[in-house]
Amino acid sequence: MLAPGALVRSPTFALVNEYRTGRTPLFHFDMYRVEGEDDLESIGYWDYLDRGICVVEWSEKIPFALPEQYLRVSIEKLPDAPDARQITAEIVSGKD
């Protein structure tokens, strides 16, 4: 959990940002530029999985690297309200 007022940045160029100010470390990944398992190895992805909470953007690019069970959160723009978003959370068990 992040500390109140903690700043969060998109990890687009760093691939992963670490937040260690709360009780549980949070690791924020952006997989947009990841091409495969070699890229995951180079950023130490596998080592992060059991060290805290991992938030993964563009996870559809690495379906082979997701845990057996995870929480998928989707954020979608609403067509009739350009400033509104619909947030959906679902538990995924097994590989899709």
Description:
A hairpin with a 2-residue loop joins strand 4 and strand 5. This protein has one domain: P-loop containing nucleotide triphosphate hydrolases (Rossmann fold, 3-Layer(aba) Sandwich). The chain is built from 2 helices and 5 strands, in the order E-E-H-H-E-E-E. It has helices spanning 37-43, 45-48; strands at residues 16-19, 26-30, 53-57, 69-78, 81-93. It is mainly β and 96 residues long. 11% of the residues lie in helices and 39% in strands.
Structural class: mainly beta
Residue share in helix = 10-25%
Number of DSSP helical runs: 2
- Total E-strand runs: 5
What's the domain count? 1
Q: Biggest sheet, in brief?
A: 3 strands, mixed
CATH homolog superfamily? P-loop containing nucleotide triphosphate hydrolases
Q: In the CATH scheme, what's the topology name?
A: Rossmann fold
N-to-C order of helices and strands: EEHHEEE
Query: Which regions have little confidence, pLDDT < 50, spanning 5+ residues?
Result: none
Please identify the top-level CATH class: Alpha Beta
Give the integer mean of the pLDDT values.
Answer: 87
- Strand order across the biggest sheet? 1-2-3
Portion of residues in beta strands equals 35-45%
| Basic shape | globular
